[in-house]
C-alpha cells in the first residue's frame, strides 16, 4: 500500500518548484518534506527526484507522479458521491499545460461555461506547443494542449483543430527590410521575433516557401509582448490569425507574403482514468474548440 503523504510531498516539490515552497503549501517544515522524500526513496528503492533547480522527477518519480495525478482526480469523483467529514468545500483544481498562443486566443472562451457551471479552478502552466507533453510525461499535469498527436502511456489524445499562423510585421518594418521583396538576402538582415528557443515556426514557414536561411532574432516569451514588439517595428514574426484580426484590419500589421501561413495542429492529451471532471473538461473542449480552430480533416 502506498503512503499518500509521501506521494503528495513528491508532487508538491515538483509542482511548487522546490522544497521551501512545497513546505509552505503542505504546512510542514522544509526538513519534514525532505524526510518524506527520503522515506519515499527508501521504500521505492530508487531516487525519485533529481536535486536540481528546480527539482525534477526521475523516471521512477514520473511514474509515481502520474499515479498521484490520477488518484487526485478519482478522489474528486468520490467526494461527489460520498460526503467527506474533512471536506472543506474548496473547488476542485485541475493542473493543465498549454501553449501561450492558445491561452491568448481561444482557451478561455472554450472552457468558460464549464468553469462557471462547476466549482472548478484551473492552474495553467504555459509551454510551447511542441514541448508541453513533457509535463504530462513527468506527471505534473492532468492534461495538456500540444502539437503532438501520440499520447504518453496511460493517456489519450483528442484532435482539437488547427491554428493558423501568419508571418507579419509593421508597414514601416516591411518598407525598411522588404521593399524589394522577401528573399534570403533580406531575411538574413531583418530581425525576427521568436517566442523561445523551442519555437521553430519561423523556420517551418521559411522552409515551406523555399526560403530557408539563418536570421537574427529577438526572444520574447509572451504572446501579448510578441505582438507589441511587431507593432513597434522591432521585427517580423509568426502570430495566430485569431490574435491579430484588429491589427490586420487596421493595417497596423501586414503579412510578409499575403495568403501564405502555417497551420499548427493542436491536440488535447488527458489521462484515461482521470475521473468525471477531467472527462467533462475533455467534452467541453471537444464541443467548443471547433468554434475557433480549423478542422484537421
TrEMBL record:
Organism the protein comes from: Halopseudomonas pertucinogena
Entries under SUPFAM superfamilies matching the protein: Periplasmic binding protein-like II (SSF53850), Winged helix' DNA-binding domain (SSF46785)
Keywords recorded for this protein, A-Z: DNA-binding, Transcription, Transcription regulation
Protein's recorded name: Transcriptional regulator ArgP
Record-linked Pfam families: HTH_1, LysR_substrate
Statement: the UniProt record of this protein carries the keyword Transmembrane helix: no
Gene3D superfamilies linked to this entry: 3.40.190.290, Winged helix-like DNA-binding domain superfamily/Winged helix DNA-binding domain
Transmembrane listed as a keyword: no
Superkingdom, natural source: Bacteria
PROSITE patterns: HTH_LYSR (PS50931)
Similarity comment text for this entry: Belongs to the LysR transcriptional regulatory family.
Domain HTH lysR-type: 2-58
Gene (UniProt): iciA
Amino acid at each position: 500500500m502506498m503512503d499518500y503523504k509521501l506521494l503528495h510531498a513528491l508532487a508538491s516539490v515538483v509542482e511548487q518548484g522546490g522544497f521551501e515552497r512545497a513546505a509552505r503549501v503542505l504546512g510542514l517544515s522544509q526538513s519534514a518534506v525532505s524526510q518524506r522524500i527520503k522515506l519515499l526513496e527508501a521504500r521505492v528503492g530508487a531516487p525519485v527526484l533529481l536535486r536540481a533547480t528546480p527539482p525534477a522527477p526521475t523516471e521512477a518519480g514520473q511514474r509515481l507522479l502520474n499515479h498521484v495525478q490520477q488518484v487526485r482526480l478519482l478522489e474528486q469523483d468520490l467526494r461527489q458521491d460520498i460526503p467527506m467529514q474533512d471536506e472543506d468545500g474548496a473547488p476542485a483544481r485541475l493542473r493543465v499545460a498549454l501553449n501561450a498562443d492558445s491561452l491568448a486566443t481561444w482557451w478561455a472562451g472554450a472552457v468558460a461555461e464549464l468553469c462557471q457551471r462547476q466549482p472548478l479552478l484551473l492552474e495553467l502552466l504555459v509551454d510551447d506547443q511542441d514541448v508541453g507533453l513533457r509535463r504530462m510525461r513527468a506527471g505534473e499535469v492532468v492534461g495538456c494542449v500540444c502539437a503532438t498527436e501520440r499520447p504518453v502511456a496511460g493517456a489519450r489524445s483528442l484532435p482539437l483543430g488547427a491554428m493558423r499562423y501568419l508571418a507579419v510585421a509593421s508597414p514601416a518594418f516591411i518598407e525598411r527590410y522588404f521593399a524589394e521583396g522577401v528573399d534570403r538576402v533580406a531575411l538574413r538582415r531583418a530581425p525576427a521575433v521568436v517566442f523561445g528557443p523551442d519555437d521553430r515556426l519561423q523556420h517551418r514557414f521559411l522552409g515551406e516557401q523555399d526560403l530557408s536561411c539563418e536570421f537574427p532574432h529577438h526572444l520574447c516569451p509572451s504572446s501579448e509582448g510578441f505582438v507589441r514588439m511587431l507593432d513597434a517595428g522591432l521585427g517580423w514574426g509568426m502570430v495566430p490569425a485569431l490574435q491579430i484580426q484588429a491589427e490586420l484590419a487596421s493595417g497596423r500589421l501586414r503579412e510578409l507574403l499575403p495568403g501564405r501561413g502555417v497551420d499548427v495542429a493542436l491536440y488535447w492529451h488527458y489521462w484515461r482514468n482521470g475521473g468525471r471532471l477531467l472527462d467533462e473538461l475533455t467534452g467541453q473542449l471537444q464541443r467548443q474548440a471547433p468554434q475557433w480552430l480549423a478542422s484537421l480533416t
